[in-house]
Amino acid sequence: MTTARLPLFPLNSVLFPGLVLPLNVFEERYRAMMRELLKTPEDEPRRFAVVAIRDGHEVAPSAPGMPDPTARPERGPAAGFGPDPLRAFHGVGCVADAATIRERSDGTFEVLATGTTRVRLLSVDASGPFLTAELEELPEEPGDEAGALAEGVLRSFRQYQKRLAGARERSLSTGADLPDDPSVVSYLVAAAMVHDTPTKQRLLQAPDTASRLRDELKLLRAETAIIRNLPSLPAFELTRTPTSLN
């Protein structure tokens, strides 16, 4: 297996290969990361790894808080992630390639990256200004009957979209073409479905494309049936949609 050491960017969400990740970076540890990435020549990939947070907090505390108002806020690259950061993150993440890193006048950054490859987290190093990780690349195997499963997932996904749009009294745009490559379908649907982070993490780390598609088919059918029987949907995306403060 191919291994690499990359800067580590923990988030309260899951990044999938092929999906775009916009970031508003203002925390010092991540600003330091972006400054380091900007040293990479423009014709070379500016890569970092994104992992979903299992424990801890995405944003380090900026002021003393409860229950001890005299406690000093935690600082440093591993702030908020406990004494062993490796335990704070899910074990499988995704490499991101930053196409755009724009520094604002106040020193914060606007970043636009794209997920590329799944990786397994082997170790985390907190000795520098930002977290780095030793990572093992995970190949994407097709599995059995991935093509047929992708067709079924796309049909169910279209029904899911229609039901979701109707329940929220929104119009559904049908002009966009959906992909036909099974692995691309599996990642697109995993990212687009309204589910919590543990469910999306399970889809990311599926052993192969076919297994991910089978899981998605079950989820889509179950969610579509639930939506069909609800007159409207509560605004639960306010609690499920990640806010990337960094």
Give your account of this protein's structure.
The chain is of the alpha+beta class and 246 residues long. 30% of the residues lie in helices and 23% in strands. It has helices spanning 28-37, 146-167, 182-192, 197-204, 209-228, 237-240, and strands at 3-11, 20-25, 47-52, 92-103, 109-125, 132-137. The longest helix is centred in the middle third of the chain and has 22 residues, at 146-167. The two termini are 31 Å apart. Mean pLDDT is 84; it is low at 62-68, 167-175 and 233-245.
Keywords:
alpha+beta, 5-stranded mixed barrel, 6 helices, disordered C terminus
Helix proportion of residues, in percent?
25-40%
Q: Which range does the strand content fall in?
A: 15-25%
**Secondary-structure element series:** EEHEEEEHHHHH
How many strands appear in the DSSP assignment? 6
Please identify the oligomeric state: single chain
Overall mean confidence score, pLDDT: 84
Largest sheet: 5 strands, mixed, barrel
Question: Counting H and I runs of at least 4 residues, what is the number of helices?
Answer: 6
Strand order of the largest sheet: 1-3-4-5-6
Radius of gyration, Cα only, in angstroms?
19 Å
